[in-house]
Design goal:
The protein contains 1 helix and 14 strands; from the N terminus they run αββββββββββββββ. By secondary structure, the chain is mainly β. It has a single domain, classed as Porin (Beta Barrel), CATH 2.40.160. The chain has a 14-stranded antiparallel β-barrel with strand order 1-2-3-4-5-6-7-8-9-10-11-12-13-14. The radius of gyration is 20 Å and the shape is globular.
Length: 306
């Protein structure tokens, strides 16, 4: 399933590896699938601190337990797909850094066109370790439409809105962020394809210090050399400008460039078991020197698909 929470884990948490859905191992007429699994990953620079700080940034090893599933409903010439996902991540390395997510999605497909709506919620997520910790709740909405152009080739448009709600003491950070993206998938062969995508977005916060406008672009590769092996790789770059920050604020005339690279390699073991190896690196360059950083994550997942 194309989980709505996967998008939130990427946009809001930054370094969490995306976990794509897995086709069920059942018969062709099976109208449902489900997956449960465990992810173990190590994330350095947990809060994206500047590289040149005297005190090394904290890192953490996280264990994530997740479950997702979907069911398809045939309605003649159309098809409905209902999906859901829940996950919990736990670590002993950073106090109060445990978090949970839950998400739901509905997709409607007719002929070569499909539309979807997804909702996800991430409560009480730690944002930074300042003082006794800064926490926020995140609610995300995603709308999408996709048109199949020919076998293996499609054009898609998505709109996403995230609602950031911080601790009352940090209410200036409360914000709404919006993003519109367009993607084109082109097949390079029966088992390989590329996606090119572009996006534009903005964040409107209670305090203008945290407002930004931005855009981005990227390229992704999908390769399935066999029925049991698949690879997904993606490179993405984003630009952000803080044009509303007042002169007295640290974000005045701030401009950021954020580059992400992600690799996900999956192996199927037997009919229902599988293993994923995952890695990611992010580089942030900013005109505000204390916002220049590098961060990375590596891990593996063991899953069971029904």
């Amino acid at each position: 399933m194309r989980s709505s929470t996967a998008r939130l884990r990427y946009l809001a948490l930054g370094m969490v590896i995306l976990i794509p859905g897995v086709a069920s191992a059942g018969s062709d007429d099976k109208n449902w699938e489900a997956e449960v699994g465990t992810v173990v990953s190590h994330r350095d620079n947990f809060f994206f601190r500047a590289d040149d700080q005297a005190i090394p940034p904290p890192s953490a090893t996280l264990t994530t337990i997740y479950a997702n599933g979907e069911v398809e409903l045939d309605a003649g010439k159309s098809r409905w797909t209902l999906g859901g996902e829940a996950a919990g991540s736990f670590t002993n390395d950073i106090d109060e850094a445990d978090y949970q997510t839950v998400g739901f999605e509905v997709e409607y497909k007719r002929h070569k066109t499909r539309g979807s709506i997804g909702l996800a919620y991430l409560p009480n997520r730690i944002f930074s370790e300042e003082a006794d910790g800064v926490f926020f709740d995140l609610t995300g909405l995603e709308l999408g439409i996709r048109r199949d152009l020919k076998p293996g080739m499609w054009l898609g448009l998505e709109y996403g809105r995230d609602d950031w709600s911080f601790d009352p003491s940090e209410s200036d950070r409360d914000a709404i962020s919006d993003e519109i993206s367009v993607a084109l998938r082109v097949p390079l062969g029966p088992r390989v394809g590329v996606r090119v995508f572009a996006l534009t977005g903005q964040k409107d916060a209670n305090a203008p210090d945290y407002d930004w406008d931005g855009y981005g672009y990227g390229l992704a590769l999908e390769w399935n050399p066999s029925e049991r092996i698949s690879l997904f790789a993606r490179a993405k770059a984003r630009e952000r400008d803080y044009e509303n920050a007042p002169v007295v604020d640290n974000n005045f005339e701030r401009s950021d460039t954020i580059v992400d690279g992600l690799l996900n390699l999956q192996f199927r073991i037997g009919k229902v078991w599988g293993l994923r190896l995952m890695g990611r690196h992010r580089n942030g360059e900013s005109t505000r020197v204390d916002r220049n950083y590098d961060a990375s994550e590596a891990g593996f997942a063991l899953f069971f698909a029904l």
